[in-house]
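QUALITY CONTROL LOG
STEP: pairwise intake check
CHECKER ROLE: data steward
CRITERIA: each record must contain a sequence immediately followed by its structure tokens, with no blank fields

ENTRY 1 OF 2
RESULT FIELD BELOW
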Amino acid sequence: MEQTTQQPRDGRALPPSVLALAAATFCVVTTEMLPVGLLTSLGEGLRTSDGTTGLTLTLPGVVAALSAPLLPVAVRRADRRTVLCALLVLLAAANLLSALAPAFGVLLVARALVGVCIGGVWAVAAGLAVRLVRQESAGRATAVIFSGIAVASVLGVPAGTLMGGVVGWRWAFAAMTLLALAVAALLAVLLPPLPAGEAVRLREVFGLVRTPAVRTGLLVVALLVTGHFAAYTYVRPALERVPGLGSGPVSGVLLVYGVAGIAGNFLGGAAAARDPRRSLLALSAVLSAAVLLSVPAGGSLPAAVALLVVWGLAYGGVSVSAQNWLMAAAPGRQEAGSALFAGVFNAAIALGALLGGRAADRFEVAGALWLGGALAALALGAVMAAGRDPRTARTKGTPPRLPAE
């Protein structure tokens, strides 16, 4: 099937459809992470403990990990514009149900629906850049689409937290309902028709794992994301122990970290478009060093802040660089590769928080940081062991190149 492409008029500016996809990723990630800043008020309002309320974060990640590889199979030949619009409408419904939830069980049902939307939007949207722009602009377009994730952490979640503190947590979810509907309308207006190519089958999705370069990419994603969340989950208590940096200024430092993450997203995207292997090598090395050095640097305020900024820059480039790796490793199978990527990524988020908690319980906060840095170092070893750029590491058993779906 012929590839649907929107050509920017000046050859440099990206079409509005790419920005609409960035808005979609911003919306789903903000919704996913919203309970981070509302945990206390959610527990008080629904009379649940902090540990139980934490399921509102764990459940969407688990459901997203399962739905990401399954949803492209379920929708098969449906137009991808229609699929994305439907997912954003479902997200709006889930947020409305969250806002009106009379009991914690109802809220969990709503959060499970959020997980379906997260997995679906990631699986479909992540691989669409090659269909919307010229080949030479695909890397930049992919970076813009993934920038919605970083911006959600810097702006979306704090804004939702502020609203929850001022008018109550239910109104924060109500606001996300309106935002999801607005983004659904944007997608309907700005995206061109995106008919599916060959129907995605489950065996095709999991069959990609037989490709060495795909397998390496997924392993690196699992190690980096698990390591990051094992350490980052406990970065606030780690910073609060730094001399001269109390609980108040920590929020400002974390905001700087988020801004660095946005910059890292675009820098990593530019580097990965040229050479995804070299980009992941650099990111893995820098991330590992920054996290590991954060432990001994905890006694120095300038060193701790500088390392956190470097951490943000490095992790900000992980998503877009890994996506570029997988697109290069499985040409013509962007959606199947994106589905695997989203599934592994979301599973790693949940696993990282779990392992980080165990390490912190046994070895205090430093244990979570040591674990995170060690996993990033293992990711560096995995990329080095791959030995070749994914564009040249395809094997005889790799699915043949097909027209972009």
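ENTRY 2 OF 2
RESULT FIELD BELOW
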Amino acid sequence: MSTPDPALEQLRSAAAEPSPQTWFQLAQGLVARQAMEEAHDWHRRAADAGFAPAQIELARMQLHGVGTERNVEEAVAWLLRAEATGHPVAAYMLALVSVGGVAAPHDARINQRVMQALNAGMAPALRAAAIHFGRKANAQDQQRCLQLLDHAAQRGDWVAALLLSERLARGEGCAADRDAAGRLRARLEAGGIAPLPALSVEDIATRSTAGTLLLEDGLQAPLARAVSERPRVAVIDGLLSADECRLLIAAARPMLHRSLAIDERTGEASAMQIRTSSDASFDPLVEDLSLRLVQQRMASAAGMELVQAEHLVVLAYEPGQEYRPHRDYRSPESLRDDVPEAGNRARTICVYLNEPEAGGETAFPVSGVTVEPQAGRAVVFDNLLADGSPDVDSLHAGLPVQHGEKWLATLWLRERGYRAY
């Protein structure tokens, strides 16, 4: 026998009236109680009546297949309807979807939509814009970065506050202000948020337009330095900025768990001694615009599209931890239940997010190439040959960390589209 829920019953009673707002409130109450299918139905009822917040929430459910079948095309249509009313959240979500360039075009409207969200004071948009301006060398753009991080932090964005504290402490884009950084860090630590590992990125590989929010700057593919022909391995220095490295570490830390490895014979994932790190995988449900833009640059640098990428994985290694020699391409068994139509992992891009005190190199035993960790540096390598068959020479290893900690971001890119948007 279910326990009576007076608050929910009150919402149901109110929803008996022909009011889209009360229908939406009931839907939100049902979401809070994990009654997703019924929530979807009430959101749709309010959305059909033209209530923009319901259109946005209905689109969110359709994007991720929550309470209904995934329908990205219909989700985008609902967001466009809500955007037409001037709703900034709809504009922000359309910008986020359009990063992939499939469900919505990646064109100049993405900048207009982010600006609309900025003007409305949306913290995720403020942080994304701050990180964008932080990649520009212009002093005024660096000042914009700091101001936007501060605005986002004031709106409760703890990641932005963490990035701001690092910049203030290290004098990045400003004169160092250790007192202000200390006060900010104290508030963060009181909330259980620890400081980030020390890191710096000297030169960012980017071409950007000073003073302007042009997210398409992130699509410019930086120059890659080939270090091996078989397997094909290239290195890109300064792919990610210090802000972007810190963003990934900060976002991953609360979700870390013991890394798993896939058994090639069974296709099942389990904890194995071959891989002793911890990691966090970013489901699209938890991605925001900042995370999407970083992944877009990683995919672009690898010569691939973001929709070909599996979920972003951020790995953390402590002293003694490693990933012994392995290959990234997957067995037919392991692909069977994981979007098999996307094909195998054609290419991998890894980006070091910091530099451990010693160890943690990426080694390719066949070619004898070893790449040293450096914050912002990417390693790109092929897992398949030109004919699509597995390249056994793509064997590689994450060597043991000797001192300090190592953080690494990885995208595995399939032969064809893997993501819905």
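INTAKE CHECK: passed for both entries
DESCRIPTIVE NOTE, ENTRY 2: The longest strand covers residues 406-414.
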